[in-house]
Amino acid sequence: MLKFSLSHNYRLALIDLVDALKSWRIWLLLAWHEVKLRYRRSTLGPFWITLSMAITIYTMGVLYGHLFKMDLAVYYPFLATGILGWNLISLIVNDATMTFVSVEQFIKQMKQPYLFFLFQSVTRNFIIFFHNILVLVPLILFFHLKINIYTLFIFISLLILWINAVSYSTILALLGTRFRDIPILVASLIQVVFFLTPIMWSPTILPERYHYIIALNPFAQFMELFRNPLLGTLPSNYTLITTLGLTILGIFSSFIIFSRYRARIAYWL
Amino acid sequence: MALIQLNSLSIDFPIYHLNARSIRKRFLRLTGGALRKETTHTVIVKALDNISFTLEHGDRVGLIGHNGAGKSTLLRVLAKIYEPNHGAIHIQGRVSPLLNVMLGINPESTGYENILVRGLLLGLSQEEIKAKTQEIAEFTELGEYLSVPIRTYSAGMQLRLAFAVATCIKPEILLMDEMIEAGDANFKKKAEIRLTEFIEQSSIMVLASHSNETIKRLCNKVVLLEKGQLKYFGDLDEGFARYNQLDSVN
Q: Which of B23, B97, B109 sits opposite A109 (nearest CB)?
């Protein structure tokens, strides 16, 4: 009996996944609408975030470049790609915990695959990210950001990031629905992670004996996966293996957890 | 042919007492101590208790019962939103829940954008919506207004738009929580004709309402719920008679 109900849960979770993927047109359109609506009444639209990010990067760059005594031609590309990637990751993590809570009225009024909302929320943040890529333009013009064959690897990096964003967001969304302090907890933890991840500081200035901070930090690994192609090099083998491992772990664990608690989501809201 | 079968179905709701939902309480529970007693119990509410009935093609069912009797919960079960804890539900046919006509209507979007988004949520394809847009525009008589954000509309105009989009589909199993309203008084007649056609297209309709008149007008069967239990399923007259009895007992 237990065995039956277990496989039954997996089957329903799989149906949820397939149905959500099938309606990709709708969540893509809704994600796009959300970005558009958020800035409808402003002239610059989503580019406001891009502008504010550019101001942060270019003012912070001068200050921290001097503090860390780094060549600005090296530091600017490093910082800009770092903030660009971090902005994407932190937005996704912060939105993840509230994914189901914020669409409560939808979940309670009509049957929709639950993963539909995760695809929508993750994709919305990717759309915002694609606006932000513009901050790299001055770097290409003035700091000779290296663009070569390795740059193309960014598409693979983004795909891996998207998959991880969806699978880990699923777990965070379930937790955030059941325990309402998770969103607050995650929002404060993510700030700590920001300082522990090489975004403002380069791994080269970290003493060798502290390198475990980077090696054991999954965010640092995803950061390298994202940043290296943009700086014209490939991610290291260590990064490739860890991120791939985390991807597989994420897919399996999120699927198992989602199967187990999928039917409870409506009750928790 | 649409079919709905409920077999001794129950829905239990965990009510997380005050802060029982917070992790702090969980943590305190792990550490033990005096707090244990008050935090471990989550209140379980039996929203629906051992419900069985079968609905077939042509059934127009009115859900009656007092506030909190479980009408909305039952509608959500039929919409497959709540999966039952005990018992089984079997549904043949596509369910169109219209529990809230304004669902997905965004005030910042234009009328046309809202038609598109709302239509997609109702399960229409982009092509189908395109084909129906003209008809919706004519029915709502909103004309040029459809190109501006609907926050500029009056409440009645917004409702008219939501009503027109919601009723443009061809429902198989139609679920409604209270009768959908069409707004302005001079619009009512037109809306009523459209609504009647809309309901007639459906194979099964389930309507929860506090208005006995509406149910007597549109339904041919009733489900009487009281505190999550099925008190009666069948004939209108008998159903209302028992409903009134409940009142006199209380």
A: B97
